[in-house]
Amino acid sequence: MNIENLIDDNLTYSGKCHKELILKGKEAYDNLMKSSKNPLKYNTELLMKILNDNKDTEYGKKYDFANIKTIKEYQEKVPITTYDDYAEYIYRMTEKGEDNLITVYDVNHYAKSSGTMGNPKRIPVSILSEKNFTKYVTAYNLYMMYKELGGNWINYPVLNLVELSFSKLKNGADYASISGKIIKEYDENLTKIMTSPIEAIMPKLETDTRYLHARFALTQKISYVFTSFVSLFLESVRYITANWELLVEDIEKGTINDSIKMSEDVRKNLLKKIKPMPERAKQIRKIFEETDDKLIVPKLWPELCCISGVGTGGFANYLDKIKEFAGDDFNFYLTGLTASEGSFSVPFELNNGEAMLIPDSMFYEFLPLNFESYDEICTIDELEVGKKYEIVTTNLSGFYRYRMKDIIKVIGKKNETPIIEFLYRLDQCLSLTGEKINEDHLRKTVYTTEEELGFNLIDFSVYADSDSSPMKYVFLLEIESLPEEINLDLIKETINKNFAIAEPLLGYKIEKGILNKADVKLLQAETYLLYKDLRVAKGTSSAQVKPPRMIRDDLTKRFFLVLLDEELNQ
User: Which of 268, 354, 463, 544 is geometrically suited to a Cys-Cys bond with 114, CB 3.0 to 4.6 A?
Assistant: First the structure.
């Protein structure tokens, strides 16, 4: 199927939107393959354009952008920065309406960071950066799906699990996640391309969106699933499996069960949009009654071709869990490294967690892990395969030589452009005696333990217990099903063995009695669902709620400790 030859009259609204984006995605793919052959050339050209465009801003004048002609001059004149260096500028932009401070590009949106450390930040997103997001987060994604899977899905709506939560800043700009900004561009046409109603896409706090996404998706054909983290789709499928009888009854009768939480006005509006669908209800009931295993996804949605979302790093273990419901040959578009500051990398094929840097997205510099001087900083052409680096970015929204605190590892090259994998956040480590435990250590420990013992892990968190003597790390695990032959003592023993393998220094300190062995506590069912719901109720976008793999504050620790499973922990 040649996408250019598709006749618009034969396409649904979803089909027309998909066609337009696929064409943009093809252009993005072709440009990326071209720039990947000489990444430094394209990266340098972008830097010089940014400096020239912004030479008359307050920041540009301060650091003499007008007279910078080389990367070396840029590094000599402009300092390495963090968010605090821009806080006053952003305050003046959002509270006083000033412009031309850090960027000449129009900024009408501020991305709300996930806020895992302190208060959420306000990250400026220029219109130029927003277009780049659409180009590499949406259009490129769809082209890769079309390129490898064909276009049989093109006319069907998407199951979108990214919910939007918007507020306005004093200067009138939107304040929300960047993924929400991209989705909102469809405005009143959102429900023409998505299976979920607006009441689930932009929900009121008390609305049970888990029910709404599932109920409306079950009544329609689906092209693909778009989500921030692939774990959200797993969560949705598990919900359907556990509640299919209630869902089928509502679909059959055109009702919404009284047990489903939502305000009366939301319920009234939704009931106007639904009608009894006895034939579809009959099909779904038959699927669940006649399916002996978990393999329900291809039976419920035969046209569903792919899931798009973060499925690497801390979310890689969810892929096999999803395949239990979707089949071993199911396809994933594993989103590369994307943040509020910009799009850093994209995959170059489906079902591959490897992602290549995007030379024309932002200007990159890299600090080697455990660097001793900023003089060690290097450019995109100087990265070495096998080494770890912290990303420093100059982006399209007014951040210059900005330390992302994201640690990546270079695992190869595509043409001449580095292929990277995200490892962890530099500022998100645990340390009791200077050992610096990061998320990569914890993931290896827990996932290896899960595989060895054969239980089904929902999620986990870890906190540092400095009150015990000797001090110790405590693992909190929510397990879906615990085999009869597996007990808490065996889990602790295996956790400690794998923890010491993941970080040998830790094993040494435990052996010498400097630290105590790690402890393990088991959580009640649906603890992480409750955590997510409470975060959303406090105004955090569901697209940004991640499991708190490292717990640093007493409030979060108390939340989880209250939800320990007393019977399993005996």
Answer: 544
Q: Which of 547, 431, 416, 527 is nearest to 34 (CA)?
A: 416
Distance CA(569)–CA(559), nearest Å, equals 17
CA nearest neighbour of 414 among 27, 35, 23: 35
Task: Report which listed range, 128-137, 186-195, 253-262, 304-313, is most confident.
Answer: 253-262
User: In a 3-state reduction of DSSP, which class is residue 363?
Assistant: strand
Q: Say if residues 393 and 399 touch (Cβ distance below 8 Å).
A: yes
**Which CA distances in Å does 514 have to 178, 462, 465, 499, 552?**
44, 19, 13, 15, 21
Cβ–Cβ under 8 Å, residues 104 and 65: no
Residue type, 424: Y
Residue 516 has pLDDT above 70, yes or no: yes
pLDDT at 530 over 70: yes
pLDDT for residue 344 is more than 80 = yes
Three-state DSSP state, 346: strand
Band the pLDDT of 117: cuts 50, 70, 90: very low
Percent of the chain beyond pLDDT 70? 96
At 287-299, the pLDDT tens digits run 999 988 889 999 9
Q: What does the pLDDT read at residue 99?
A: 95
Q: Output the six-digit token pair for 502.
A: 């993941």
Q: Which residues pair with 258 in a beta bridge?
A: none
| Tokens standing for residue 540 | 């955090």
The model's pLDDT over 464-507, given as tens digits with 9 standing for 90+, comes to: 998 888 899 999 999 988 888 899 999 999 999 999 999 998 88
* Nearest-5° Cα angle at 299, 294 to 302: 135
Q: CA angle, 233 as apex, 230 and 238 as ends, to 5°?
A: 130
CB 475 within 8 A of CB 525: no
DSSP line for 476-537: EEEEEE--TT--HHHHHHHHHHHHHHH-HHHHHHHHTTSSPPPEEEEBPTTHHHHHHHHHHH
Peptide bond between residue 470 and the one before it cis (omega within 30 degrees of 0): yes
